[in-house]
Structure formats: C-alpha cells, structure tokens
Amino acid sequence: MKIGIPKEIKNNENRVGMTPSGVAELIRHGHEVSVQHTAGEGSGFSDLDYTSAGATILPSIADVYAWAEMIVKVKEPIEPEYPLVRAGQLLFTYFHFACDRPLTEAMLRSHAVCLAYETVQLSGGALPLLVPMSEVAGRMAALNGAYFLQKTKGGSGKLISGVPGVLPARVLVLGGGVVGEAAARMAAGLGAEVVIADISLPRLRQLGMELPSGVRTLYSSEHNIRRLLPQTDIVIGAVLVPGDKAPCLISRDMLSLMQKGSILVDVAIDQGGCFETSRPTTHSEPTYEVDGIVHYCVANIPGAVPNTSTTALTNATLRYALALADKGWQQACRDDEALRRGLNIVDGRVTFKAVADVFGLPFTPWGE
C-alpha cells in the first residue's frame, strides 16, 4: 500500500503522523511510504531520518495526498486540505467530527474513508489510540494550569505548591478517565490540594486506591461542583463521551462563584468543551478571560511536546496502521471490532451514530 505522511498545518501543531522507526516497520512489511518535506522537523525527526528508514520525501502536501492510498496524520484535515482528499482514500487520524460540522460535511463530500483514532475502542471500553495523547494532555493540563496561575500570566498569583506556612493551590479535576487521572496525579505531584470528580462510583473507588493519598474523590454533580468552586484555583475539564460532544459542566453563571484569576483548563475542547464559556485557542494565543476567569482551551495540548507525543502516538497506532496496510481497510475492520468502531465516515455516509445524531444526519452502519 502507498502510505503518505503529510506535514501538519494546524496552528502550532508540531507533531507528525509517524516516527521514522514506525515508517521502517511499514516498509519492512512491503509498503511504500512517502513523507512530506520537513514534516517531522517539529518533532525532532529530519528528512534524512525518514529516508534512512526507507521513505521517499515529497515536496508538498498536495503531492502526498495525490500519491497516497492511505494518509496517516495526527490532527483532522483543515480547510486547505479538504480539496486534497479524494474518493476511496483512507484517512487515519484524529477527527473529532462531533464538534465540527464543516469538517464532517467536507469529508462526506469527499467520499473518503475516515477512520478516527478517538473512536477505535476495545470491547472493554478502552480507547487505545486516545490513551497516549490523553496521558500527555492530562499532565500538561496541570502544568499549564500552574503556569497561568502566575500573576504575570493573568492568574491570581498563587504558587501551586505553596511554601511552608502558605497553603497550596486547590485543583478540581472533572472526569476520572485517563486525562483526569493523569492531571490529578501531576497536580498532586506538584503539591496541590486535589479533588477529582466523576459520576462512576466504581471508578472513584479505583482512583481512591491508585492516586496519591492526598487526592480526594467526589461524586460529580452540579451541586457539588458549585460548592467547591469558591475555594478552587484551577479547574481541569477532562470529561469524554467517545465520539460525541462533551457535556457542559460549568455554566457562565457559575464563573461568579470563582475567585478572580482562577484558571479553567478545558481538555475536552476537541469535543466541544465542557465549560459554557470555552472556545478553542492555540499555542500562540492560549488563553482569554471571561468575567475575570482565565480560560486555557488549546485544542492540541500535546503539540507543545511533540517529540514525546509523536513517539507515544506511533507506539499506539503502528499495529493498527500495519493491519490496515497489510489487509486493506475493509478486511482489517472485519477482523478487528476495535478498528471497525473507528469508522466514522465511509463513501459519503456517516457510520458512527454519535456523529449522525449530533448533526441530524442519516446513520448507516458500515457493512449493512
């Protein structure tokens, strides 16, 4: 199979779809790989690294799309890429369709096959291609929350750890999944007082046993969130409904309960955000203020640490990319239910129910 790896063109997205070692493995399986010129530089991988692995370097993004049968990316195609996607082409990347109607409509028009990392799901519910980036994003959420709590960055001027005689900052993590656990663990490691909230009692029991002893668990409800907000310095939104829009957990009126200069970090912004006042931001302009509360809503948080992120992502995606290339996407999806759940759009039809429901579009399960 001809596999193309284009350069990411989303704002400050420095990750790349695959490491040179991943490329070498694809080539070892008999596939051809072309990488766009300088695609890996942001992650610390040179064109020479890729050619040494056996790849061909193509000069432009248009060349990569025109050549490849399968595109391996990190982020969803953005508007300049829409015309490059063609019928029957397989795109294997993060899409997050449920919060992006223009992207959904563009991919429907393209008649491409869109297999989304974020909805590849194992029978037990685990999301193997979301986990590595969730682990990065959760850790970074705590670090960025602490950073923007500085007065010079718009925050209240508190040190997250405190010092002897001065209390540490208080952090509320909403969502006990992979992102939430990583965020709570990092915040606790920085010395904060941490509360993690979720609606699953079994998950809260598990977190209570696994997280550092200073992290407290709380059943997530509007009443409980409102009660904690006046004493909270950083709120990290880490809720996820696979493939669907994130629920709104903090409304605008709730901001009045918070101290001025407190920080909202919305890791769920890729799925529409879990704060009413959230809107996507970028690494070049990461924050904005609403009613005195600093919002950090960067849609590609792991892009700030691209070497770590790209390597972690390739570790997770490579086995699935190999299956798709070795067998062809149809047979690979027949053989692997987890991959089949990743199919969101196929030949102009929505094949993932949550996406169809969000936009009121017809739902056509693949294979029926």
Describe this structure in words.
The protein is an alpha/beta fold. It folds into two domains: 2-120 and 305-359, Rossmann fold (3-Layer(aba) Sandwich); 131-304, NAD(P)-binding Rossmann-like Domain (Rossmann fold, 3-Layer(aba) Sandwich), CATH 3.40.50.720. Helix content is 33%, strand content 16%. The protein contains twelve helices and 15 strands. It has helices at 20-28, 47-52, 61-67, 101-110, 131-148, 178-189, 201-210, 222-228, 306-327, 329-335, 337-341, 353-359; strands spanning 2-5, 32-36, 56-58, 70-72, 90-93, 113-116, 170-174, 193-198, 216-219, 234-237, 263-266, 287-290, 293-296, 343-346, 349-350. The strands form two sheets. It has an eight-stranded mixed sheet, sandwiched between helices. A seven-stranded mixed sheet has the order 9-8-7-10-11-13-12, with helices on one face. Strand 12 (287-290) and strand 13 (293-296) form a beta hairpin. Helix 9 (306-327) packs across helix 10 (329-335). The mean pLDDT is 96.
Core attributes:
368 residues; alpha/beta; Rossmann fold; 8-stranded mixed sheet; 7-stranded mixed sheet; 15 strands
